[in-house]
Amino acid sequence: MDPIARRPLTRSREYLARARKVIPSCTQTFSKGPTQFVQGVAPLFLQRGRGSHVWDVDGNEYIDYPMALGPIVLGYDDPDVLAAVQAQLADGVTFSRWSGSARTGPTRRRGPCGRRARTPVAT
After folding, report:
1. With 0-12 CB in 10 A as exposed, 13-18 as middle and 19+ as buried, what is 100?
2. CA gap 94, 89 in Å, rounded
3. What separation, in Å, do the N-terminal and C-terminal C-alpha atoms of the chain show?
4. Of 37, 34, 36, 38, nearest to 23 (Cα)?
5. pLDDT digits (tens, 9 = 90+) for 47-82
C-alpha cells in the first residue's frame, strides 16, 4: 500500500469539514487554500514546525518546501528568532503609541530601494 494512503488523516478531515461550513474557501488566504496544493498528498492543516519540517493536526511529518509561502527562510522555531520574539513579548506588544524599539530606539536606515526608511529595528 502507498505510504501516503496509510497516513492517519482523521482530524484533518474533521477540520476540513468544519472549515467548509464556517470559512469561505476554507482559509483567509487563497494561496494557502486546499485547492492550491495536491489533494491527498499535501497536509490540510498544520499544527507545528521545526526547522524545515512541519506536522499536521494528525501528527504526520512533512518537509515544508514552500516554507510558509516564502517568509520562513530560517526555518520554524529558529533559536535566535525565538529568543528575540520572547524578549519583545516580555516587554509588551500592541501599545497605544508607537514605541520604536525598547532596546535601541528608533533608527533610520537605507531601504532596499536606497531610500531612507524609519524602522524600529537596529541595523
Report:
1. middle
2. 10
3. 53
4. 34
5. 999 999 999 999 999 999 887 766 678 888 889 888
Helix (H) or strand (E) holding 6: helix 3-6
Say if residues 122 and 101 touch (Cβ distance below 8 Å).
yes
Q: Spell out where the chain has E strands.
A: 46-50, 53-56, 61-63, 107-110, 116-119
Mean pLDDT (the chain) is 79
CB neighbour list of residue 53: distance below 8 Å, 6 or more residues apart: 61, 62, 63, 64, 76
Q: Which residue has the higher pLDDT, 3 or 94?
A: 94
Total residues found in the chain within this entry: 123
